[in-house]
Structure formats: structure tokens, C-alpha cells
Amino acid sequence: MAEEPQPPIREGLDPTADDPDTGEPSTEKTAPVDRKEAAALSSLDSTTQDTDAASKLKNIDQDALAKAISRLELETGEKGVGEPSEREKAFNERRRKEREERERIAKVKVDAGDVGLLVQELDLSKGKATELLKTHEGDAVKAMRAWVTALV
After folding, report:
1. Which whole-number Å values give the CA distances from 105 to 3, 23, 38, 59, 99, in the listed order?
2. Angle at the Cα of 33 (from 46 to 27), degrees rounded to 5?
3. What is the pTM for the complete model shown?
């Protein structure tokens, strides 16, 4: 196993400077980035594989993320002025459908007895059992079948 060669050390350069090659501040003008946009973009970079990471990705500010991505596209010149591309239309449609699905699931009412049943029989937390029931329209039988089928 050969190690990759390290880049040469350049003495006298400012490591905090914008341009690492010259050590000088960057002269390129960049648009100020909104905090929401930065937070939305940084949440996409998370490499943790825990269960909280998935829920955090669901809760990112979609509008701020779309604004940040469009700003990046404009800076790199990938997007022209005018109508959105087919890819953007498909992305926006998919995002709209996901939002509608989340709203539909949020409106579903579940019975506390069904939640208790799933917690006891499937060894789930109350939150996960509630989410599973809401996803399956409050039907405990459908929820249990889906859970068992997903494990197989």
C-alpha cells in the first residue's frame, strides 16, 4: 500500500487567506449567502448515519435550499435566464408531491391503542409506531404487514 504524496509546504503563505496558492484575499465578488441557505446546504453534507440524520434532512428549509442551489447555478453559469430546465421542473414537481404527502400524513389521526399494540408487538418507540400508523392511514394491520415485509 503506497501512500499518496503530500502537497509541498509553502512557507510564508497565509493559511487563512481566500486563495491558498498566493496567500492573498480573493478578488472574486461573491453574493452574500443567507443563513438559512447556508444551513440548508450544510445539512446536505452531514455524513452521520444515525436515525436523527434522516429526520434532520426532512426538516431542512426547502425554500432556502432551492434559493441556495439556484444561486450556485447562476454563479457557475449552468442555468440560463428564463424558463426553468426540465430537471428543475421535475425536481419542483417531486418536491411538491412530497410536501403534499407529508401534509396528508400529518392529518391522519391514530388510536392510542393501536400505537400501544405496535410498541408492544413490534418493539418500536411510540414516535416510530405513530409515524408508521400515520403512513398507513391509521390501519394497524397494514402498518404491521408493512413493517414485517420491510424486514424480510
Report:
1. 51, 53, 29, 15, 10
2. 110
3. 0.41
